[in-house]
Automatic annotation (TrEMBL):
Domain MmgE/PrpD N-terminal: 56-289
Highest taxon of source: Bacteria
Residue span(s) of domain MmgE/PrpD C-terminal: 321-488
Protein name: MmgE/PrpD family protein
Biased composition (Low complexity): 15-25
Pfam families named among the record's database cross-references: MmgE_PrpD_C, MmgE_PrpD_N
Length: 494
């Protein structure tokens, strides 16, 4: 009781008013929320301009897994399978190994799992380390609303939150759903503006979504969850300059830790500034340039599930999204026409001029550079017949055979569009036209508007599990354990 009284006193002191004593109103609690006595939220003024934090928190705290249609629950299983596989593979990357070394020295042991490892850490350490591994390869699913990477930040947070409270799988999955939906809402309405001003839309959307998801998994009440979002809003700004570098994964690891920390602080009575998201001086004004109190239509939450419409894109190859249509169309042309790679004289790729700007043009020196190099991706096809996580190592992309293959790749901007469609990049920004020239003068060409895994070419469950198995094998996990983990994830309740 004394702890609750301290929380209430702290909140009253910070708000300059009074807060009801225990039993006479709402207060933050790790045991309330959807399964507690105060889950209706009808007396809270959600959705007023400048109170987006309260609106999304109130919605999330009332969300139950059974509120989702069965198709949405299945998408959550797919997300968990894919992100877990990415974490298993990502844990072996140099940046994740560095993070592991630092985290294991700084953070104490605890009850929270580190994905794919036998160690257990306290919640904040586990979240940071898992989020670094999940994001290390940039191979995680993309929320198509705003095209943001959010699941690889949100899942580590809701995992740790669920373990802290010894919650049920339903709490974990509801937290993941809440986090993804809120991330999609933010990205849908502010993602482009954030990007134009040099901020990472993925970080802002994922950071706020992870906080909401963590609060739901912790079963905070709506008032505490709202304050968690306001606290987290103070630290979600990440520069886009981090993209394409190893620092991206470590920064997102810190972002995930901040998201869980915000919920834990709010649970203990700490409040964040009113309007921290959409009020004067809040995230949307300061980072996205919105006018204060712009009303973000939060009532879309639960009306159109972003999990399904437009859904998520699941990557087939561990490369940056703008590269994927070009790599897949090249592979299709080589396979369909039975072209031996030794006969290929040159491959020319025609891309959206906006995509060409972000590509690595020189031979890659790091894993991140390789993932943003179209020459590397196509060079792997010519050298190995495929491209997967096993190729993202210095000894591979420094090999003379791959370097020679990369020299046969040419990338050109296509300002007039592709084929007979001058506006193709408006609807398909990553579309690619491919021309394969062979020794002797023969030539084939093709066009790919969208990579496999996008809404027009979804990755089916079998292909997604094959990706998981490949990633888990890369981590060194034995086959029996791989199959057990996959089956457990597919069998999560719904």
């Amino acid at each position: 009781m004394a702890l609750r009284e301290d929380k209430i006193k702290l909140r009253a002191e910070e708000s300059g008013g009074s807060v009801s004593p225990p039993g006479e109103g709402k207060f933050p609690s790790l045991a309330s929320g959807p399964d507690g006595p105060d889950d209706d939220g009808d007396d809270l003024p959600f959705g007023t301009p400048g109170d987006l934090a309260g609106a999304v928190a109130g919605w999330a705290c009332r969300l139950r897994l059974e509120d989702l249609p069965p198709e949405g629950v299945h998408v959550l299983r797919r997300v968990m399978l894919d992100v877990t596989g990415c974490a298993l593979a990502g844990a072996g990357t140099p940046v994740a190994r560095v993070a592991h070394s630092l985290v294991s020295r700084v953070y104490t042991s605890g009850r929270c799992h580190v994905i794919g490892q036998s160690i257990h850490l306290n919640p904040l350490g586990a979240v940071r380390l898992n989020a670094v591994a999940c994001n290390a390869l940039e191979f995680d699913p993309v929320v198509l609303d705003g095209s943001v990477h959010a699941a690889a930040v949100i899942l580590p947070v809701v995992m740790a939150a669920t373990e802290m409270t010894q919650g049920r799988p339903q709490d974990l999955m509801a937290g993941l759903a809440a986090g993804l939906e809120v991330a999609a809402l933010i990205a849908r309405h502010a993602g482009s503006a954030l990007g134009r001003r040099g901020w990472s839309a993925s970080a802002v959307a994922a950071g706020l979504g992870a906080t909401v998801g963590g609060a739901r998994a912790l079963r905070l009440d709506a008032d505490a969850a709202a304050h968690a979002v306001r606290v987290a809003a103070l630290r979600v700004g990440v520069l886009r300059l981090a993209e394409g570098t190893a620092a991206r994964a470590t920064t997102l690891g810190a972002l995930a830790e901040d998201a869980l920390h915000a919920s834990l602080l709010a649970a203990e009575g700490v409040i964040g500034p009113e309007g921290g998201v959409d009020g004067p001086g809040g995230v949307l004004e300061t980072l996205a340039g919105y006018l204060p109190k712009t009303v973000v239509p939060w009532r879309e939450l639960g009306q159109r599930w972003a999990l399904m419409d437009p859904g998520l894109s699941f990557k087939l190859h561990p490369l940056a999204a703008p590269l994927l249509p070009a790599v897949e169309e090249t592979a299709r042309l080589l396979s369909t026409h039975g072209i031996p790679t030794r006969r290929v004289r040159r491959i020319t790729v025609h891309l959206n001029p906006a995509s060409v700007v972000g590509l690595v043009r020189t031979p890659p020196a790091t894993m991140s550079q390789a993932q943003h190099s179209l020459a590397f991706g196509i060079g792997c096809l010519l050298t190995f017949g495929r491209v997967n996580v096993s190729h993202l190592r210095a000894q591979v992309f420094e090999g003379p055979g791959l370097i020679e293959a990369m020299e046969r790749v040419r990338v050109l901007p296509a300002p007039a569009g592709l084929g007979d469609d001058p506006l193709i990049f408006d609807s398909h920004p990553h579309a690619a036209g491919i021309v394969v020239e062979m020794e002797g003068g023969d030539m084939v060409q093709g066009l790919c508007k969208e990579a496999v895994g996008g809404p027009g070419h979804p990755l089916d469950d079998d292909a997604l599990e094959a990706k998981f198995v490949s990633n888990a094998r890369f981590s060194g996990m034995d086959e029996a354990r791989i199959r057990v983990i996959a089956r457990r994830l597919w069998d999560l309740p719904g």
